[in-house]
Amino acid sequence: MKKKLLRVERLLKGVADATNYLLTMADYSQGINEVLATLGQATEVDRIYIFHVHPHPENQRPACSQLWEWVAQGITPQINNPDLQNILFEDMVPRWYNTLKVGGVIEGNVGDFPEEEKNQLEFQGIISILIVPILIKDNFWGLVGFDDCHQEQNWKEIEISTLRAIAGSIGGIIARHEAEQQLQLLNQDLERRIQIRTQELILAKEEADKANQAKSEFLANMSHELRTPLNGILGYAQILNRSPFIPEKERNGIDIIYQCGNHLLTLINDILDLAKIEAQKFELNPTVVHLSSFLEGVVDMIKVRSDKKGIDFIYHYDPNLPDAIVTDEKRLRQILINLLTNAIKFTDEGNVTLNVKAEGIFPIKLEQCSICQQQLDCDRVKYSLQNSYYCQIKFEVGDTGIGIAEKELPQIFQVFEQVGKDKNRYTEGTGLGLAITQKIAHLMDSTIKVKSTLGKGSDFWFRLNCPISQSWKEELLFKDEAQIIGYEEDTVTILVVDDRWENRSVLVNLLEPLGFILKEAENGEEAFNILQNNSINVMITDIIMPVMNGYDLIKKVKNDSQFQTLKIIVSSASVSDRDQQISLEIGGDDFLPKPVDANKLLESLTKHLHLTWQYKEINTSLTPTATEMIIPPQEDLQSLLSITQDGLITKLVETVKTMSDRNSSYLPFVNKVLSLAKSFEIEEIESFIQEWLR
Ligand code: ADP
Fold first, then answer.
1. pTM for the whole structure
2. Does any ligand 1 atom lie closer than 6 A to the CB of residue 342?
């Protein structure tokens, strides 16, 4: 009796130890081996094993394979016996499958078993056997077997239940392990799929980048090709416009050629802008802008159109607006002109309004510049942020036109979208305007909003936070409109390098009448020869040319010490920021986009050659020629001199300008002072004034 109690106790202890193993084991396979060994000692049998039940690989019939085994000393292990893999139940022990499957056990002394089972088991030397099933979620996963090869066993109910329980625990562990494995597989699969997808996305992005690059290049090339003939058209329109021999009537025609050419240029620029914005290569160029004169410029342009259409144009300018702000002038103008042009286009009666309002002035607490999104110490705006305030400005364009249906409002900012039924009005536009305008507004940290009532009119508005500039006077000194007819210095020789005759001839015809000597070259090599054999002061060169391009020419010139004083202006139809940057980096002194703007060209020459221009008199009947200078009264000269000696350039400019406003015969005198003031030649102004002081 005592012995039997001890046996049960030992079994319970073994099962407790085994359970502990199961719960704490680190290595699953090793852990199960430990469990079998513990159970072996607890039950004192000769062999314990676990078989996994599965469909036979060939015929899918129920089969089982041995996975783990423990043997007592002196018993030969069968773990590597291939005969114990893929055993068909029906071949060996058909009865067992059905019993175990439903949770029953096989137990007893082999001698009592049916004949065919007895043969199989005795053949393996088994005298007594206990088989308990491993059920995982009611599925017959496998079995645990206990063989005794020495004696008959008399398994008690409690022992069988205990072993069934441990088989259940083993099943739980196997289930957990299988779930973990499945999870691991899933994870691996997921990782693999993510890797494939990432790879696909990288490839797709590369493809898209390539396509985008190709598109940008195509657009840049196209715009280059279109600009070259336009350069001829616009250049000659400007030359003809300056000609004294063209009668007034024909001059109108020239104006139209110029305007149409300019319109075409705007379209090309629009498309290029869009490509740049999409390729994220669009850069803002903030500068100091004198707000009221900037807006007046816009208003003047728009008024011509509204007058032509016979509608009123109402302009409100808030007196609280700052004098000057820092913003991208060209882009702000582009936004306003687009909104105003649309307003006029879609209004047949009533009025169009432009309302510009200061909504508040706030201290700048920015970590970055609100305009260029760079750090506040960016060179672009540093000078203008001395007082560190910005103004929130609301720009509002209203009209009493056809309006836009509510459901169509979201579409109007889409590329190539034109809404409404009036197809006639479409021909005037491209459907690009608002799309670009909105994108530019976004780049400026703003959004264009719209409210519209069909048949009543529309309101478009946006708000800009613009740093207020204090130093605008120094930045913007003045713009003189008087026409230049020559310069006072010794003759300047200019070499024009361009493979297109149209381009060369525009520059030659613009500059020769002003007294410059012009030489021409078709490519870099020819230019270099001319430079070696002539005394050239300025070279204006294209970039893309056969034989030797502009970049190589500039590099060659820069490496040659005899050309140290030569000024180089790069003029190209490739207007990408990159081209401009390269041109300046390799030694160009200035960059002028084509089509060449006559005023910009002259400005550049002024800057690099310090020329003193001679101006055409405004009205021959009233004013003397440039050389016959009428001098203002002595007291005016005296006050000008003291302003100059105090270095108050801005005040000087304002004062001389009021003199010419008062009496236009002072214009040559005034222009002379202005041109000296423009290059801050204070001493020269002083001695010039003193020349006339008695
Ligand atoms: P488009 O060059 O055709 O004018 P936009 O992008 O500037 O292209 O405008 C897109 C469309 O939005 C226009 O075709 C028009 O249908 C509508 N739209 C824009 N502004 C107004 C307005 N002020 N009044 C009525 N409709 C407008």
1. 0.45
2. yes
